[in-house]
UniProtKB/TrEMBL annotation:
InterPro entries: H3K9_Histone-Lys_N-MTase, Post-SET_dom, Pre-SET_dom, SET_dom, SET_dom_sf. Its main location: nucleus. Gene3D superfamilies: SET domain (2.170.270.10). This is SET domain-containing protein. The lineage of its organism: Eukaryota, Fungi, Dikarya, Ascomycota, Pezizomycotina.
Length: 477
């Protein structure tokens, strides 16, 4: 037999789908005459195959079998005999068979080409991390993706002025107006929370006050902060009077030194018997007022409950000019009349020192009052009216004042925690500014000390300074 070669192009004749879905075995032939020989893979003759069925191909489910066509190489037909893997393996033809068979790397079959041509390709999707195709988002995220937030859309960035060399405010006068209006509304709401007759603001000063008190809150009682503990009720006591106290017997009242006589702080007015105020004698004193309390036998109309009954006068906050805001009343105020309590946060001396230092560094006003009337040790508390307080935090200093601050005890047992109350010491006409002496014990100085806060009260007897030293700007008694 003559030695010859042939090429089998499996790509043209194989049916790949057969590999996937095996069909009943079938035989077909291919004319290989026009093929070029490129590589040689020895195949086996059918006769050899039939005789050799001892081994099984580990790789192919089907094995091609060559069937020469009457020895005519040009018309050689290949019989393709698919065999299952379980069938015996067909070894390569022996070299002496004279035939060399080549197999080209398959190109797509006609069937595969048809399938490729008719295939529907996945559209060209530009994938992003937020692709709706794969990461469905909720309505809000969709709005964000479209930049559809109304507030953001309404901002006209190009309309916001940016003045180089002028660091703010960036809002123009027109734009700032609504902000001030909002602050005014907020201030009115805060003022409405104050108990008692109205506390108003002088009409022309509303905006200025609203801006300067935007972070200030009005309160109706002390705010006790960390480290401040009032004594318990068990240490408090009350009198055993009936309905209205008897000034000669009431145990709430203190006694004069070396005397059985009781110190009576209040008396009624000749003009108006319903009015109770400080006696002219008591106004000259620096004594503490001891009022009756809820443990007492008397009722709420007792004459010794002036502060407990609360503020009776209207108040108005107004701007004084160089001394900042001040306080006055549209009512006529009698000498001896209770005006209001001084309120604020009650803090420890340590905290007060820190706040005082910070305020002095900013050259900010001081609102600190030491509760050191009965004791003068490290344990004293301090009332700070800076962030929380009442309208009386606006009362300015005068070296010739019309008001005076008195200490008032209502629970009688607590030497560290008590009230600070403003009383008029002169008749005060409607609209006249309330003032009191921040340092009643300060001696007259020849000249203002260096570092002192200058006094601008304008009185003929002005001492010239509020506090001797900027670092100790705290009212004491
Ligand atoms: C308790 S505040 C009084 C209210 C303050 N004027 C305001 O606008 O909030 C005390 C501060 O008022 C100012 N002040 C009060 N009386 C003054 C006076 N006679 N002269 C100068 N400044 C005064 C000082 O800045 C002081 O630290």
């Amino acid at each position: 037999m003559t030695q010859s070669s042939m090429l089998i192009d499996l790509s043209q004749d194989s049916e790949p789908e057969d590999l996937i879905q095996p069909k009943p075995p079938r035989l077909f032939s291919a004319n290989l005459a026009h093929r070029e020989l490129s590589s040689t893979i020895p195949l086996k003759r059918k006769s050899d195959i039939d005789s050799d069925s001892s081994s099984v191909s580990p790789f192919n489910a089907f094995t091609p079998v060559l069937q020469p066509n009457n020895g005519n190489i040009n018309n050689t037909h290949v019989i393709f005999n698919p065999k299952r893997r379980s069938e015996p393996y067909t070894p390569s033809p022996a070299p002496e068979s004279g035939i060399e068979l080549s197999v080209v790397v398959p190109s797509p079959s006609a069937q595969l080409k048809r399938e490729i041509d008719s295939a529907e390709f996945i559209p060209d999707i530009k994938l992003t991390a937020l692709s709706q195709e794969f990461y469905p988002t909720d309505a809000l995220e969709k709005r964000a993706t479209r930049g559809a937030y109304p507030a953001a859309r309404s901002v006209k960035r190009e309309a916001i002025p940016f003045r180089i060399g002028n660091p703010g405010p960036f809002l123009t006068e027109k734009e700032r107006k609504p902000v001030v209006d909002t602050l005014c509304e907020s201030l009115k709401r805060k003022l409405a929370t104050i108990k008692g007759p109205p506390v108003t603001v002088s009409p022309g000063d509303m905006k200025r006050l609203a801006q300067s008190t935007s972070s200030f809150e009005f309160i109706n009682r002390y705010k006790l902060r960390d480290g401040v503990t009032p004594i318990g009720n068990e240490f408090s006591a009350g009198c055993s009077c009936n309905e209205i106290c008897d000034p000669a017997r009431c145990s709430c009242l203190t006694q004069e030194e070396n005397s059985e006589e009781r110190i009576i702080p209040y008396k009624t007015s000749k003009e108006d018997p319903r009015f109770w105020g400080l006696t002219p004698e008591f106004m000259q004193r620096t004594s503490m007022i001891y009022e009756c309390n809820s443990l007492c036998g008397c009722n709420e109309r007792c004459w010794n409950k002036v502060i407990t009954q609360g503020r009776k006068v209207k108040l108005e906050i107004f701007h004084t000019g160089k001394r900042g805001f001040g306080l006055r009343s549209p009512d006529f105020i009698r000498a001896g009349q209770f005006i209001d309590l001084y309120l604020g946060e009650v803090i420890t001396t340590k905290h007060a020192d820190e706040r005082e230092k910070a305020a002095a560094a900013r050259n900010a006003p001081s609102y600190l009052f030491s509760l050191d009337f009965l004791v003068n040790d490290d344990g004293i508390y301090v009332v700070d009216g800076c962030n929380f307080g009442g309208a009386t935090r606006f009362i300015n200093h005068s070296c010739n004042p019309n008001c005076k601050m008195f200490t008032v005890s209502r629970n009688h047992g607590d030497e560290y925690l008590y009230d600070l109350a403003f009383f008029a010491v002169k008749d005060i006409q409607p609209g006249m500014e309330f003032t009191f002496d921040y340092n009643p014990h300060m001696e007259q100085v020849d000249k203002v000390e260096p570092g002192a806060v200058p006094c601008l009260c304008g009185e003929p007897n002005c001492r010239g300074q509020l506090w001797a030293n900027k670092k100790k700007r705290r009212e004491r008694f």
